[in-house]
Specification:
The protein is about 55% helix and about 10% strand. It has a domain at about 15-45 and about 145-175 and about 260-420: TIM Barrel. It is globular. It has helices at about 15-25, 50-55, 55-65, 70-75, 80-90, 100-110, 115-125, 130-140, 155-165, 180-185, 185-195, 205-220, 240-260, 290-295, 315-320, 340-350, 370-395, 400-420, and strands at about 30, 145-150, 170-175, 175, 225-230, 260-265, 270, 280-285, 305, 325-330. The two termini are about 35 Å apart. The mean pLDDT is about 100. The chain has about 425 residues and is of the alpha/beta class. It is built from 18 helices and 10 strands. The strands form 3 sheets. The chain has a 5-stranded parallel β-sheet with strand order 4-5-6-9-10. Bound molecules: D-fructuronic acid (FIX) and zinc ion.
Length: about 425
């Protein structure tokens, strides 16, 4: 019987893929990008069936399927919106899209029968769940050991909670999200000045130092694990535009001073259909080479990167082979579909081995962690099962504990190491 250096039995060929599937299914998950909130943030934590069904993906899909004008949809109450989406995408049409199927998976994982119980039965199930109970239910069902929020100090409701310095829920970690600095510096500068940071609308005078001080103060206040920004496809580096100067003179120095990585989420074409609101964003091809130039300029700083265009993935993954400080994470947004998750996971494993984070949920509604991880784990397990079987055929059969070790790195270890949580 063949054994490894620790005298552990190596698996037979036909045991490998099932062992990978079992390890993935049981793997604890650290979710490094979500839009969830600790329960103490109140209404900011979206949860329950009506929020799940009116997720902006399903708003786009239901207004497309019916031709309903978005402004008419948004004039409905949340309850009426949910009933519209349920009727149009689940009753009148089969819920085969990824977002619609996700609702079914979540309900099924909670023990409901979506077709039998329907919207009314689902509403009954969620009724009366406190936020704490709901977080525990969703996290335990999804196997989450931690989730990183998307925290915006420019959001008045959120800022108020942070200023109260309440007791933290250890299952949640903060990320300082500062898109408003790039999207609307004049508006952000007004708020910053009111908070005591002398930042000018044109980024003149002492703005760079003051913006750096603001970022460091908030990274510390939140104990943020990283700072993050989303960028349009034309992100470039080096860049002497206002965006490039804000990054070079304030944000990157703040991350280095606070000892946190900077996350770049690149490729959003914002609001191509404004009337769709959150559902109105699209995607565009970016420049992975610019990410490489950024990593080359700051070799001692980690950059967490996810790009939105499928077209960019191969060049980005090859670029990551050159820079150990380029940390790829997730199949973001329009990429979070089984067909593309499979392609990206295979490419990343073939080019990077196990030095990446295969997925983040990007969950906006608490219950989405259930389906987003269930769907992703199934796809990732199938790809990894094939890769480990190929490795076995090449003469290196794995042991169960080696598979568990590797799967743990992919689903929690790598992310927690990058975010200095282990
Ligand atoms: O910028 C982001 O973090 C995006 O994930 C969101 O803006 C986007 O609306 C989303 O939630 C996609 O799933
Ligand atoms: Zn997001």
């Amino acid at each position: 019987m063949a054994v490894n250096s620790k005298n552990e039995k190596v698996l037979a060929r036909d045991e490998v893929a099932p062992a990978v599937a079992e390890a993935v299914s049981k793997a604890a998950v650290f979710d490094m990008h979500t839009h969830l909130y600790e329960p103490r943030f109140g209404e900011l934590l979206l949860r329950g069936i009506d929020e799940l069904i009116t997720y902006h993906y399903l708003i786009a899909e239901s207004t497309r399927a019916t031709g309903l004008a978005p402004e008419k949809f948004y004039r409905m109450t949340k309850k009426a919106q949910a009933e519209f989406v349920w009727d149009e995408l689940f009753v009148k049409r089969s819920p085969v899209s990824e977002a619609a199927r996700g609702v079914l998976t979540t309900l099924k994982c909670y023990g409901l029968d979506p077709r039998r119980d329907g919207l009314a039965g689902a509403r009954k199930f969620f009724k009366g769940l406190s936020a704490e109970e709901h977080v525990t239910l969703a996290f335990e069902t999804a196997g989450l050991v931690g989730a990183v929020m998307t925290n915006d100090p420019f959001g008045d409701a959120e800022r108020e909670v942070w200023m109260k310095r309440g007791r933290r829920d250890g299952r949640f970690h903060a990320a300082l999200r500062i898109d408003p600095l790039i999207v609307d510096l004049p508006g952000s500068a007004k708020k910053l000045s009111a908070w005591g940071y002398k930042v000018d609308a044109d980024f003149g005078g002492r703005s760079a130092a003051e913006l750096r001080r603001f970022a460091v103060d908030w990274i510390k206040r939140m104990d943020a694990r990283y700072a993050a920004m989303s960028f349009t496809p034309d992100f470039t580096w080096p860049d002497d535009s206002l965006q490039g100067r804000i990054l070079r003179k304030s944000i990157i120095p703040a991350c280095r001073e606070a000892g946190v990585p900077f996350a770049l989420m690149i490729g959003v074409r914002r609001k191509i259909r404004p009337e769709l609101r959150d559902a109105g964003d699209s995607v565009g091809q970016g420049a992975p080479a610019a990410v490489g130039r950024l990593c080359a300029e700051y070799p001692k700083m980690n950059f967490l990167v996810t790009m939105l265009s499928r077209v960019d993935q191969h060049e980005l993954t090859v670029t990551a082979r050159k820079f150990a400080n380029l940390k790829l994470f997730g199949c973001w947004w329009f990429l979070n579909n089984p067909s593309i998750v499979a392609e990206m996971t295979a490419m990343r494993t073939e080019l990077l081995g196990l030095t990446y984070v295969p997925q983040h949920s990007d969950a906006r509604i608490l219950d989405q962690v259930v389906y987003k991880w269930r769907h992703s784990k199934k796809t990732i397990a199938e790809v990894l099962g094939g890769k480990y079987t190929d490795m076995c055929d090449a003469g290196w059969a794995p042991t169960r504990s080696e598979i568990k070790r590797d799967v743990k790195a992919l689903f929690s270890g790598n992310a927690m190491e990058w975010l200095r949580l282990k």
